Amino acid sequence: MFEMAPQLRRSDLDELDAALGVDAVTVLSECVSLSEFARVERCDGEIVYMYGSASHWLGSDRGSVWMVGTDRMSECGLHFLRKSLTEVPEITAHLRFVENYCDARNLPSLRWLSWLGFTIEEATPWGVKGLPFHHFWKEN
Predict the structure, then answer these.
(1) How far apart are CA 7 and CA 100, in angstroms?
(2) Tens-digit pLDDT profile for residues 64-86
(3) How far is CA 7 from each of CA 59, 63, 116, 119, rounded to the nearest angstrom?
(4) Kind and range of the H or E element at 14?
(5) pTM of the predicted structure, to 2 decimals
(6) C-alpha–C-alpha distance, residues 117 and 64, integer Å
(7) What are the CA-CA distances from residue 98 to residues 6, 71, 74 (Å)?
(8) Residue of 8, 64, 4, 9 whose CA lies nearest to 31
(9) pLDDT tens across 98-124, in order?
C-alpha cells in the first residue's frame, strides 16, 4: 500500500496536508490500522486507490469513510464508480451515520461524494491549516 503514497493525486496530497499536516505514508498507515474495513484496488497490478471506514469509537454506530487515489484512477474511472456504488455501502453497513471532511479544493472527491448520495455542507475552516473544508455525511 505504501508504494502508492508518492503517486497520490495532487488534490489528495493537498487535502492531507491541509487537514492533518502529516505525510501520506503516515496517513495511509493510520487509516488502514484504525479502519474496520480497508481495501485497495489495482489497475494493471498497480494500486490506484484505497478506501475504508472506521467507527468513531469501539462499538459506535457512527464513523468515518475515507478514500485516496492516484492519477491513474481516471484510467479505471468506470470500474471505480461501479465498484464504489456497491463497496461503499458494504464497508459502511455496520454504521448508522458516516461522515468526514473534504477539502473544498478537492473537486474530484466532492463530485464522487455527491454522486454517492452524501450530503455536502457549506465549506468552513477546518484542519490544521484552517482552510475551507466541506463536512459530508450520510445516514444508512
Answers:
(1) 23
(2) 999 999 989 888 878 888 889 99
(3) 34, 27, 25, 29
(4) helix 10-20
(5) 0.91
(6) 15
(7) 28, 26, 26
(8) 64
(9) 999 999 999 989 999 999 999 999 999
Residue with cell 494493471: 44
DSSP 8-state assignment for residue 118: -
Secondary structure class of 120 (helix, strand, coil): strand
Question: Following DSSP, what letter does each residue of 69-94 receive, concatenated?
Answer: EBGGGGGGHHHHHHHHHHHHHHHTTT
Question: Which residue segments constitute the domains of the chain, with CATH numbers given?
Answer: 2-99 (3.40.630.30)
| CA pair distance 98, 42, nearest whole angstrom | 25
- Which grid coordinates belong to 6? 508518492
- Alpha carbon distance, N-terminus to C-terminus of the chain: 29
